[in-house]
Amino acid sequence: EADRPAPAVLETAQPAEPTAQSSSAPSGLPLASAANASPLAQWDDSRPLVSELLEAHAGAIAELASLLRETEPLFDPNLHDGLWLVRFLLSHKMSVNASAKAARQTLQWRAANKMDAIAHTVLSKPLTEWPGYGAVFPHLPIHYMAPMGIDGPLVMLVESSECSVSQLMKEKDIERAYIQYMLHSLEYTYQYTDRATRLSGRLTKLHRVLCLPTLSRRHISLSFFRIAGSREIKQAQNSYPQVLGIMFLLDLPPAMAWTWHHVIQPLLPTRTAEKTEMITLSKEKDRAKMNVVLPEKMMPKRLYGGGGDLLPHPSTLSLNDSGPKVERA
């Protein structure tokens, strides 16, 4: 097609080749009934039931599968099932043609960037061994947690007190290192949320919590935000439909709110900007809004400004683990 851009090929370190089935498809786990989810995940759950999504959109799913079989050699109906397909439909307002175009671009992008091999890396190696970790994490620690168990939402926490974007930008070859690290993080997020979706029977996403009470100039770098909003990052994020949930900005200083709205937000991918909520934890109404998605009684205190320890990275959990014991908020 004339309007189809070539997939961006990212300069990533070459991971070991995968030994399992292609992970351009989901994890391969069967869809579970929501009634079989772990007790920890049985809260006032607002996540959509996958069975209802598949039933409601069965016609569009079948039409999309048929179109991809005819137009995309990388599409494999034995791997790319109804859940994989409905993610594209939901992200493209149920347009079969737009969804087919996005799915083709995703499959081609994954092949060009050897994403199946990267999936193998993030599922078999600790975070500390991911490419780019050494350059990025010391200055921009990104903590992943599964507070509600292995079949609940994935939560990402970033605290401004731990971060220094200005120091990050002094690292050698930081653009390449950052893109490497984020590519692995995005793939891990997809693999985790797909597994959680199949285990719980509910569409599961990543929710991001950015604690920003100490936000200052050392956290602001136009060069960094240009990298974070680059074509490579945007194309990568577009290849994971219905994975990113809400991004909560906690206690953003009033003086920085203008900078966020007028400088930072325009540089971010559109979908990221649209899913952002500014929260002041001292305001009961704001706290209640966050509580709907991340129930305070089930979260570590640290997510609600109460200090305390972080949960371990979700890769430490087994499929049968309901999650580590933690002091709740």
From TrEMBL:
Q: Residue limits of the CRAL-TRIO domain?
A: 132-311
Location of the region described as Disordered in the Swiss-Prot/TrEMBL record: 1-31
| SUPFAM superfamilies found in the cross-reference section | CRAL/TRIO domain, CRAL/TRIO N-terminal domain
Q: Which Pfam families match?
A: CRAL_TRIO (PF00650)
| Bias (Low complexity) | 22-31
Q: Where are the transmembrane segments?
A: none
What the entry lists under InterPro entries is as follows: CRAL-TRIO_dom, CRAL-TRIO_dom_sf, CRAL/TRIO_N_dom_sf, PI/PC_transfer
- List each coiled-coil range: none
- PANTHER family per record: CRAL-TRIO DOMAIN-CONTAINING PROTEIN YKL091C-RELATED (PTHR45657)
Which protein are we looking at? CRAL-TRIO domain-containing protein
**Species for this entry:** Strombidinopsis acuminata
